[in-house]
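Bit of a strange request maybe. I'm writing a small parser for structure token strings and I need a real example to test against, not something I typed by hand. Could someone generate the tokens for this chain?
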Amino acid sequence: MNKLARKQIERPVSNVYCAIETGSLKQVFIESAKLIQAEIIETTPSNLIKALNNIIEGTPANEILSSIHGATGPLETWLDENTTKWDTTLGDKNITNAEQAKFGITYCDQALAESGTVVLLNENNTGRSVSLLPEIHIVLIPVEVIVPRLKESMRDLHGRVKQGKLVPSCVNYITGPSNSADIESYLVVGVHGPLRTIYVILDEET
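Reply from user aminoacidic:
Good idea to test on real output. This should exercise your parser:
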């Protein structure tokens, strides 16, 4: 009796697999982000301050709330001079600041190429309201944190647990500004949360 030939198992249809092989995960992420109505700005760490100044266009510091743990150098100085920082010692005043802010600035821990999703780990005294209550959400995304899919993000969190590291009580997966087409099939962006989401992708210096 002839043995049945083993069929080759095809990989699921997804452009992230080709991106892994060609090193173009960033481009897949950008294309996915545009589909979910996120705005894209590409820059480098050395040009980040210029990019941020262009975005805020002279908005006063009391209307810009930031929550970026461990910022150093020019970025730390810029945040000190141009934003109101999330401060755990202020208690509920942080929520008031978030409600009144035009811009909320956060740092992305991971980004999912397949869906254009950003992952925010609410640890080290970072404020979850900064990404939810201001009118415009600015997310800083180092290109090296872009991973293919949710699977890789979950694998990373699982690895932290296995190593005995603390996992934050809140992990936010944010896929652009909220979208709804429930009423007469008209797409409405920003129904809940920020009206605009701006992804600032930080490429490596050349």
